[in-house]
Design a protein that fits this description.
By secondary structure, the chain is of the alpha+beta class. The protein has 2 helices and 10 strands, in the order αββαββββββββ. It has a 4-stranded antiparallel β-sheet, covered by helices on one side. The protein has a 4-stranded mixed β-sheet with strand order 5-6-9-10, with no helix packed on it. It has a two-stranded antiparallel ribbon with strand order 4-7.
């Protein structure tokens, strides 16, 4: 009987790594805005924690589209993670695939480029993604998921206070 308990303990330990519930917490974004026509041509990653910073970044992103209304966010409870992918072929936008606590105390945000429908001519795009998530003070590690690999693209520092 002891052997069965030991075997069950070992199997559970291998399948579910030893971690506290907090280390395994997954966050579902409240809102995701993504597309393929950003005015920001460089690869950039941002943590936005106030409306003024979002307004400024949104104006850069919207470019000459004067009618692009800036989203209003409750920054007391939320923050925005913004990813700009730079010029790429055939990308319909950038979407989060996983937002979860890491084992080292950071927030891991894994994102992927969403492809356009196959079969068309190659299209130049400048993809972006805005992810509205719970406001957290911990540092953020941003990883891009491409071809089955996660590559660290940016590390954003922890918030003070």
């Amino acid at each position: 009987m002891r052997f069965h308990w030991l075997l069950a303990f070992l199997v559970c330990g291998l399948i579910f790594p030893f971690a506290t519930a907090d280390e395994r917490r997954i966050y579902k974004p409240y809102v995701v805005l993504s597309g393929s026509d950003s005015g920001i041509r460089e690869i950039e990653h941002h943590r936005i924690t106030d409306q003024g910073s979002l307004d400024k970044l949104w104006r850069r992103h919207a470019g000459k589209r004067d009618n692009a209304a800036v989203p209003l966010i409750d920054f007391k409870r939320c923050m925005v993670v913004a990813v700009f992918g730079g010029p790429r072929k055939d990308c319909a936008g950038i979407v989060p695939s996983l937002v979860a606590d890491g084992l080292s105390g950071q927030l891991n945000v894994t994102y992927a480029a969403r492809p356009v429908a196959p079969g068309g001519a190659a299209v130049d795009t400048i993809p972006f993604g805005f992810f509205v998530i719970e406001r957290l003070t911990k540092p953020i590690t941003l990883k891009e998921l491409a071809e089955g690999k996660r590559t660290v693209r940016a590390k954003l520092p922890a918030l003070k206070g």
